[in-house]
Amino acid sequence: MPDAIDEVYSVLARSLRGRLLRQHDAEYVQAHTIWNAAAQRRPALIAQCAGVADVAAAVKPASAAGVATAIRCGGHSLAGFSSCEGGLVIDLCALRGVGLDAANRVATVQGGCLLGTIDTATQRAGLVYPAGVVSHTGAAGLILGGGTGWLTRKFGLSCDNVEGFTLVTAEGEIVRANARENEDLFWALRGGGGNFGVVVEFQLKLHPLTHVLLGCAYYGEEDIADRLRFFREFMPDAPAELKWNLGLRLGPEHADCPEELRGRPVLSESLLWAGNEAEGRELFRRLYSRDSPQAVKIEVFLFLKLQTMADAEFPHGRRYYTKSGYFKSLSDASISRMIAALGSVPSHETQIELVYLGGAAAKISADDTAFGDRSSPFILNLLAAWDEPERDAENASWVRTLFADLRPEMTPGVYVNFMSGDEDDRVKEAYSVRWEKLLAVKRKYDPRNFFRLNQNIRAAKS
Ligand code: FAD
After folding, report:
1. Measured between alpha carbons, how far is 284 from 242 in angstroms, rounded to an integer?
2. If both were cysteines, with which of 6, 116, 302, 396 could 321 make a disulfide (CB 3.0 to 4.6 Å apart)?
3. What three-state secondary structure class fits 457?
């Protein structure tokens, strides 16, 4: 739609306070690059908004002209939804302010914040906002889809800890959504993704925490099945202070991984305890006293160190493909399939990630927020990562094959933030019984589906 985008350019060239970039501009290359190189696109125009008025100024002409428009916070959408081919990107990278009301344990954060921006600001007052595990992830995309991380079992999902949103709608109007204003929108924004508008400000609920106890270990191939069975049996009654994350992969070429395990199938395990240290140490002693953990390390970690620990493991510019889903329980057959799949994994960087939800996240009732299923506690994420474009098909195919093998044992549903761009048909599955209500809110706030570059909520085409 070259004429429409030119029209948008000429309006924004006159009205935008922030930077407006086109493909020939020197700053364009960096500005258009998103985290997943396999989902990279070339927008015609990038509007780096300098404030809320800029966001409204960008939305209005693009919406009126029907130009494909992507909203970018951290640019970490696995599907590449924060960019588009030939359209407009509304880039919030200049909107990274955080206001702190430590006495009331509330942070007011702008719509372009990264997780690290929020952590650094809130830790100054010894407070945390429960979010994801990599500090360079965008907060907006993560929160709007749900948001899981180290503290999910103790404090709930990220979206459970939002007290209010301010957003710019498809008409360019500024609207607030909280427990007293536009409650339908408040409900939908907690899990419904970027479907309803550009969120320019979040009011976040904070909790006191500065340190955690972290245990890391590896298990060789022969111990993986036993360990996963123990995980399966232990977690349903585990205290909410415990988070247990597992990754099946080839042992990394990393000093922490015992030399004899490098390049061989391993289980990489992290135990996190967010509670009394002595109780945590006693629990870890029990959990490590069985199977044969290797390279066990138990340390008290500053929360900020915890939040940046995995940053280098998920670098910008690599190629990624993912498929995810839930299990109600983890069968022996599924465990065997996952272990067998490591025999043919095409990349050293690929992981089969398993976590157990439950805890505070499972205490919120299914219809309190738009977030997908809280009742199937095992979350599986098959995350392929590789560098060479010519190996895209091979890596995606490994994920698809394993997913298809596991699917019969899985329960329907998927976490929208762990979906790839080719899974449009699973969005309804993700929201399940919340789908009709989400459609109604979408019709009310974005009837023309201007905000469609996301896990899109739209009626099926007849
Ligand atoms: P972007 O790519 O900027 O945007 C993604 C989507 O959100 C787009 O559809 C966009 O339109 C919408 N959006 C972005 N900003 C706004 C806004 N201000 N208003 C309205 N819509 C907006 N998820 C977890 O739950 N827990 C984790 O621990 C976790 N770790 C991750 C680690 C890495 C390295 C990566 C790449 C992803 C991780 N994820 C995690 C998934 C993550 O939640 C999603 O990728 C999420 O979309 C990232 O948010 P973003 O702001 O960077 O996304």
Report:
1. 10
2. 396
3. coil
